Amino acid sequence: MNTDLHPAVMGWYATHARDLPWRSPDASAWSVLVSEIMLQQTPVVRVEPAWRAWLQRWPTPADLAAATPAQVLRAWDRLGYPRRALRLREAAIAITERHGGQVPSDEEDLLALPGIGSYTAAAVAAFAFRRRSVVLDTNVRRVLGRLVHGTALPPPSPRRAETATALDLLPADPETSARWNVAVMELGALVCTARAPRCADCPVAAQCRWRAAGYPPDEHAARRRTQAWHGTDRQARGRVLAALRTEDELRPDQVRDLWPDGDQLARVLTGLLTDQLLTAVRDLDGVVTGYRLPDS
DNA sequence: AAGACGGGGCT
DNA sequence: AGCCCAGTCTT
């Protein structure tokens, strides 16, 4: 195992770590799981208040398992990717039914839950249960990519070599490894940032291969395409859901007024129905008379 | 391997 | 107008 980087990174984390509530020793495994789902593609500053409100309302998996999709979608508010809210509810149901209401500690069991992929399974195992696991999020990938491989940014999709590198650096002791994982993530979030890294504040700048190589540019820049927003299906979906968070039911004509392109709106509504983010209300003849958030 | 999937804040 | 954010799931 390579241990050269450990003292500097661990020492830096000891003095610079943010005081985030899900890092408290008192945080339940469930609260850690909720934080990890919310943090999938949503920044910390926006997650923190939502996380507090969510845990106050649904302190245990069994509490959330009893909620309706409409309730969780409204509570999710504008965190983005609302399918995460539905999957979190489904995960709560699975935990209640299959695991006696206790969040499982094995990565394999976590991975089997809805909405939990390789990152989140490893993160919950490490941060909630202090297990030794390879936590590979966007921060860790970027930090290790720069330090070890000398690249500006990691490839669009994770490579096996990245896991091998992370495993090679992972401390053998479980508790130490859990702290190492969060320390590297924190370094990526606060110092080794994607856009304008603060190398002057970096505890391992002297050991950074990217820095030593003179900061070569991102090799994969051409392959990263920025996602459009205005006029997209995603924006239309968001507009429909935003309206339904404040109204119990919308008539078809009210929904049509939400978006100028009727064909696109029809496609978007179909997608929302497929994703179970939306329910159509029909009269006795099967004619759609309205749309609602799913009650069950 | 590539595409879909939110929304906000910063440069 | 881009770019980025503690990713996951489907095709």
From TrEMBL:
**Reactions accelerated catalytically:** Hydrolyzes free adenine bases from 7,8-dihydro-8-oxoguanine:adenine mismatched double-stranded DNA, leaving an apurinic site
Instruction: Note one Pfam family from the annotation.
Output: HhH-GPD
Q: Which residues form the HhH-GPD domain?
A: 38-190
Ordered alphabetically, the record's keywords are: 4Fe-4S, DNA damage, DNA repair, Glycosidase, Hydrolase, Iron, Iron-sulfur, Metal-binding
Cited InterPro entries: DNA_glycosylase (IPR011257), Endonuclease-III-like_CS2 (IPR004036), Endonuclease3_FeS-loop_motif (IPR003651), HhH-GPD_domain (IPR003265), HhH_base_excis_C (IPR023170), HhH_motif (IPR000445), MIG/MutY (IPR044298)
Keyword Translocase set for record: no
So what EC number does this one have? Answer: 3.2.2.31
Q: What class of enzyme is it?
A: hydrolase
| Database matches in PROSITE patterns | ENDONUCLEASE_III_2
UniProt keyword annotation of 4Fe-4S present: yes
One GO MF term = adenine/guanine mispair binding
List GO BP terms, alphabetically. base-excision repair; mismatch repair
Q: Which residues form a coiled coil?
A: none
| Matching Gene3D superfamilies | Helix-hairpin-Helix base-excision DNA repair enzymes (C-terminal) (1.10.1670.10), Hypothetical protein, domain 2 (1.10.340.30)
Q: Which cofactor does it need?
A: [4Fe-4S] cluster
Domain of life assignment: Bacteria
- Return the PANTHER family for the record: ADENINE DNA GLYCOSYLASE
Protein family per UniProt: Belongs to the Nth/MutY family.
Q: What is this protein called?
A: Adenine DNA glycosylase
- Taxonomic lineage per UniProt? Bacteria, Bacillati, Actinomycetota, Actinomycetes, Micrococcales
